[in-house]
TrEMBL record, chain A:
Matches recorded under Pfam families: CO_deh_flav_C, FAD_binding_5
InterPro entries attached to this UniProt entry: CO_DH_flav_C (IPR005107), CO_DH_flav_C_dom_sf (IPR036683), Diverse_Substr_Oxidored (IPR051312), FAD-bd_PCMH (IPR016166), FAD-bd_PCMH-like_sf (IPR036318), FAD-bd_PCMH_sub1 (IPR016167), FAD-bd_PCMH_sub2 (IPR016169), Mopterin_DH_FAD-bd (IPR002346)
Domain FAD-binding PCMH-type positions: 1-173
Protein name: Xanthine dehydrogenase family protein subunit M
UniProt xrefs under PANTHER family: XANTHINE DEHYDROGENASE SUBUNIT C-RELATED
One GO molecular-function entry: oxidoreductase activity
Key words, A-Z: FAD, Flavoprotein, Oxidoreductase
From TrEMBL, chain B:
Domain of life per record: Bacteria
UniProt cross-references to PANTHER family, sorted A to Z: ALDEHYDE OXIDASE 1-RELATED (PTHR11908:SF132), XANTHINE DEHYDROGENASE (PTHR11908)
Single GO MF annotation: oxidoreductase activity
Domain Aldehyde oxidase/xanthine dehydrogenase a/b hammerhead residue range list: 28-134
Protein name (database record): Molybdopterin-dependent oxidoreductase
Chain intervals for the UniProt region annotation (Disordered): 1-24
Entries under Gene3D superfamilies matching the protein: Aldehyde oxidase/xanthine dehydrogenase, a/b hammerhead, Aldehyde oxidase/xanthine dehydrogenase, molybdopterin binding domain
Keywords in alphabetical order: Molybdenum, Oxidoreductase
InterPro entries: Ald_Oxase/Xan_DH_a/b (IPR000674), Ald_Oxase/Xan_DH_a/b_sf (IPR036856), Ald_Oxase/xanthine_DH-like (IPR016208), AldOxase/xan_DH_MoCoBD1 (IPR008274), AldOxase/xan_DH_MoCoBD2 (IPR046867), AldOxase/xan_DH_Mopterin-bd_sf (IPR037165)
Transferase in keyword set: no
Pfam family, one: Ald_Xan_dh_C
Natural source organism: Parasedimentitalea huanghaiensis
Length: 289, 747
């Protein structure tokens, strides 16, 4: 196994491009190291990207948008007061991952690129409209978070490409997001269903924009347009919520496995969508929930 | 034992809760557990395991593994003793497969190498050719007519004709006439139940360090609940004399019954012998789940008849237990414990021990009893509900008492079931209002408790302190209990006593720390060993004073003349006698060994409030109270710990823990992420009430407390969940998908 510690993303991309066999990028390592120890993956090349300048920073641009470094752990996101005020759903989704110890290492990008359909932060990123900067052998590009996972354990990133930054849009007024997951326990578990909703309201409380994302109910995260449309134009009345739940359940394409059945996941997706929408709506109205 | 041998009330040390002697080591990391042993020249072992649920082993080629640099030995079944019969034969077959791999994870070979990484690589180089066979993992499917046959020679003579060869043992017991009893009933309910297999979930994986020379002399360090059984079993499997293998028990990071047998220990010994170097093996968590001893899964049919006034007229149960690929599923304990809380005129119980393509089951706290209790107490709850009777009143009406002929045969001596029920009824929990969406459940539970071979030695030091050697690994704070009982007898402070878990070379055979026997049996032996030493102390004092031995008695840590006639001497403290013992006759020690028979049975009653989310099927246990008869609580805080631990493990078993097998017969959830034991935030504070109805078979009245506490939770939680959900749950665990399905079926 070759271990590298590049100091720039261009160098990281070049190393990955030249590597043969299995390549893994190492930031928090909360998936890669576990997989290595469990004999699931033994990378031929391990590229540690924690030493690249700026990867641990959270910064806000004058337009209100945010850039989060690829090695920023969940614990630092949680402790960032303004980020939490702008994007409480994204921060709470990240915060649900693992234990306190894991929170000290785990990152948004790691959660995304591990490719698990059940990743908690991914529906929240998708609902928030997060984009990623990707550095590759021939230059950089921007890609929406929703377009990164293509199948369980697989991403759309090409050989030699490495995510170099996370871009979260400006929050804007009268807007809020939320994330809920279903687990059989109270913590230290993996989502059986995850739901993130991001809402923008007008001044009288009518939903003008909505994004609804579901996790763990399909091979990849789902951005459910029908579910969003069920909310747009409503004030989150019972009828809109029921339409939301129906649309969320209808979008599910889950499997039955050790964590839940098709029937269960499909039903609970609707239940969670309603509950999540209510929290996002309250936040958009300025309530501190 | 005569009652006049019992210590009167007015204990000085017993009944207090000092810090455990091993506590500082355990919270600072100084304590040495199974994986904390190292030896010069030590190799690392790793085990090759079957990926198939059932397969004939056609060929094993170890040549590539042996050729890898750093590999010092590879063993297969050929490196163990041939022709073992009975339980040793089953254990050998389990720790190293012979002709067939019988479950996913079954060991088929093992390697020893100079590093863990090399050993892991070498495992991948061992080539095993399998002929995959049809498999079965479900208990009912394994009994069915066309089920794959695992082994057609395992069934013993107890099995009636006409059963599938996978049915290997049969049990039938009871008394009275159940048909006549059912005819007298106003309401008869008959229902079927299933429970999935669970694992004890001890945090410390199995680990050992073994050294065995060509001279047949060996040393073994391992995490175990019983190092004498490990000694006996390992010696038999590798073919050496028992006494030539010295076994030392490490500190133990949980066992709960699962560390009462061996898995990697004989393998490490065989590797060591072949490599002529010490070999250490540490299991991964996945190996622990796949290849150690979970509980049985069960399928049960219960039929109970009740009169309108709550009198049970007859009870009948069929208990089918799947115990993995070998005989031994504790179906007779299921059958015998099922109805033990009740005084029944007509009772009949039948048990089936069924083999299937799963790992060999091992004991798990009151083996067999929790599942049976779940089924029986669910039906009693349903009867109470349909007849509109209070569940505690009904249990009190039918409760077993002193003199009751137990459902499993003997007459009960003094027992404390009624006292636990009365305490439950009086507890504020039982009358507290419930919130909407919540339900309350109660259940009783029973466990036999056990005595077992026990040998304890105690030696006094010149400075008046005391060291005690016991042979039962400390799995629940027993060093503290032993020290308290010795302090009580000797009359010296608790802190002046050090209790050591002695190795197999130090004492005679000690049975395993199981059967809730340690505080009872090792405690009894400790008291008797202390009395033995006290007799010698009195004798030294008598000699010093020049009066007869029987004119001296022991009180408050001093020898005293028994009265004015004996002479007028100042009390002689223990430290004064021991200071000169080298010149007054030599070292003073005490010893006791026996197989005590008076382990008092124990009952408990649990009250549970549960809340069910009707939209997701998720359950929260919101309040929990354990009431149990401890006989006499030597260390009340650790007794409460046992009560709470039983309830916590029961909550996991009832709600989320289960072995999940795929269609391919492979275990799907061999990590703690997907084998869901409760985390701290899943549990309410578990309240406890210690009832003390003394056991006539122990000098202080001790009854074992370790196991009874896991018997009632499954039923109590199921009754609470069923009340909250408005539908009877008959399949454990009551995971959210199962509850949601039940709610949908109810409509």
């Amino acid at each position: 196994m070759q271990y590298h510690r590049p100091t720039s993303f261009n160098e990281a991309a070049a190393l990955a491009n030249q590597a043969t066999g299995e390549t893994r990028f190492l930031a928090g390592g909360t998936d890669v190291l576990v997989q290595l120890r469990a004999d699931i993956v033994t990378p031929d090349t391990l590229i540690d990207i924690k030493s690249i300048p700026g990867v641990g920073d959270i910064s806000q641009a004058p337009d209100g948008s945010w850039t989060i470094g690829i090695a920023v752990p969940g614990a630092e996101m949680r402790e960032h007061i303004q980020l939490g005020k702008d994007w409480p759903g994204l921060v709470e989704a990240m915060d649900l991952i693992g234990s306190t110890q894991v929170q000290g290492r785990a990152t948004l990008v790691g959660n995304l690129c591990n490719g698990s359909p059940a990743a908690d932060s991914v529906p929240a990123m998708v609902a928030a409209g997060v984009e990623l900067s990707v550095t590759g052998p021939t230059g950089s590009r921007r890609i929406a978070a929703v377009d990164v996972p293509v199948a369980p354990g697989r991403t759309s990133l090409a050989k030699g490409e490495v995510v170099s930054a996370v871009h979260v849009p400006a929050r804007g007024k009268n807007a809020g997001d939320a994330y809920l997951r279903f687990i059989p326990r109270t913590e230290m578990d993996i989502a059986v269903v995850g739901c993130a909703i991001n809402l923008t309201l007008d001044t009288d409380g009518t939903v003008t924009a909505a994004r609804v994302a579901l996790g763990a109910v399909a091979p990849t995260v789902l951005l459910v347009e029908d579910a969003a449309n069920a909310l747009i134009g409503s004030s989150l009345d019972e009828e809109a919520l029921n339409r939301l739940a129906e649309a969320a359940s209808a979008a599910c394409n889950p499997i039955s496995d050790k964590r839940g059945t098709v029937e269960f996941r499909t039903h609970v997706a609707g239940v969670l969508a309603k509950r999540t929408a209510k929290i996002a709506y309250a936040r958009a109205q300025g309530e501190n929930t | 034992m005569a009652l006049d041998d019992q210590k009167p009330s007015g204990f000085k040390f017993v009944g207090t809760s000092p810090d455990r002697p091993d506590g500082l080591d355990k919270v600072t990391g100084r304590a040495r557990f199974g994986a904390d042993a190292y030896a010069p020249g030590m190799l690392h072992g790793a085990v090759v395991r079957s990926p198939h649920a059932h397969a004939r082993i056609v060929r094993i080629d170890t040549s590539k593994a042996e050729a890898l640099e750093g590999v010092k030995a590879v063993v297969t079944r050929a490196d163990f003793v041939d022709g073992l019969q009975g339980e040793f034969g089953f254990v050998l077959e389990n720790v190293m497969a012979g002709e067939k791999a019988l479950y996913d994870g079954h060991a088929v070979a093992a390697v020893a190498a100079s590093s863990q990484l090399i050993a892991r690589d070498a495992v991948k180089l061992v080539e095993v050719e399998y002929e995959v066979l049809p498999h079965v993992t479900d208990v009912d499917a394994a009994m069915a007519e066309n089920a794959p046959v695992l082994n057609d020679s395992y069934a013993d003579a107890s099995v009636p004709a006409g059963h599938h060869p996978n049915v290997v043992r049969y049990h039938d017991s009871g008394h009275g006439d159940v048909d006549a009893g059912f005819a007298e009933a106003d309401l008869v309910i008959e229902d079927s139940f299933k429970t999935e297999a669970t694992h004890q979930g001890y945090i410390e994986p199995h680990a050992c360090l073994a050294s065995l020379g060509g001279d047949g002399k060996g040393e073994l360090w391992c995490t175990t609940q019983g190092h004498w059984i490990a000694q006996k079993t390992c010696a038999a499997l590798v073919g050496i004399d028992t006494s030539q293998l010295r076994v030392t028990a490490s500190e133990i990071g949980g066992g709960f019954g699962g560390k009462t047998t061996v898995f990697i220990e004989p393998v490490a010994l065989a590797l060591s012998r072949k490599a002529n170097r010490p070999v250490k093996i540490v299991m991964t968590r996945s190996e622990v789940f796949r290849a150690t001893g979970p509980t049985s899964s069960t399928s049960m049919d219960i039929k109970i008849g009740m009169k309108k006034d709550g009198t049970i007229t007859a009870a009948q149960g069929i208990f089918r237990l799947q115990g993995g690929a070998f005989p031994g599923a504790p179906m007779e304990f299921s059958a015998m414990c099922a109805f033990a809380p009740y005084s029944l005129t007509n009772v009949h119980q039948v048990g089936y021990d069924v083999i299937s393509n799963r790992p060999k089951q091992a004991a798990y706290r009151a083996p067999g009893a929790p599942m049976a209790s779940f089924a029986v107490e669910s039906v009693i709850d349903e009867l109470c509900s349909q007849l509109d009777l209070d569940p505690i009143d009904v249990r009190l009406k039918n409760a077993s008492r002193e003199g009751t002929k137990a459902s499993y045969g003997p007459k009960f001596e003094r027992i404390g079931l009624v006292e636990t029920l009365e305490a439950a009824k009086a507890h504020p929990h039982y009358s507290a209002p419930l919130e909407p969406g919540q339900g309350r459940g109660i259940s009783c539970g029973f466990w036999f408790n056990h005595g077992g071979e026990t040998s304890v030695s105690l030696a006094l030091s010149e400075d008046g302190t005391c060291q005690i050697s016991v042979g039962t690994p400390d799995i629940g704070g027993s060093r503290a209990s032993m020290a308290l009982m010795a302090a009580e007898e000797l009359g010296i402070p608790y802190e002046n006593i050090r209790v050591t878990i002695a190795d197999t070379a130090t004492l005679g055979y000690n049975d395993v720390s199981h059967g809730s026997r340690v505080t009872y049996a090792s405690g009894l032996a400790t008291i008797k060993a202390a009395k033995d030493a006290v007799g010698k102390l009195c004798k030294r004092a008598a000699a010093k004073w020049g009066i007869p031995e029987d004119a001296v008695y022991w009180e408050d840590g001093c020898a005293k003349p028994s009265g004015a006639n004996a002479g007028n001497f100042d009390p002689m403290p223990l430290a004064k006698i021991t200071k000169s013992m080298g010149r007054s006759g030599g070292p003073i020690s005490g010893h006791f060994e026996a197989t005590p028979e008076g382990a008092g049975v124990s009952f408990g009653t649990h009250i549970v409030d549960a809340e069910v989310d009707p939209e997701t099927g998720k359950t929260a246990v919101v309040r929990y109270t354990v009431i149990q008869d401890a006989g006499k609580a030597i260390h009340p805080s650790y007794v409460e710990g046992q009560f709470q631990g039983g309830a916590a493990q029961g909550i996991g078993w009832a709600l989320n823990e289960e072995y999940i097998y795929g269609e391919d017969g492979r275990l799907q959830n061999s990590i703690f992420l997907d084998y869901r034991v409760p985390v701290a935030s899943d549990l309410p504070m578990i309240d406890t009430v210690i009832v003390e109805v003394p056991n006539p078979g122990h000098p202080y009245g001790v009854r074992g407390v370790g196991e009874t506490g896991i018997v009632p939770p499954l039923a109590a939680i199921a009754n609470a969940v069923s009340a909250a959900a408005g539908v009877r749950l008959r399949h454990l665990p009551m995971s959210p998908p199962r509850i949601l399905r039940a709610l949908k079926d109810k409509g």
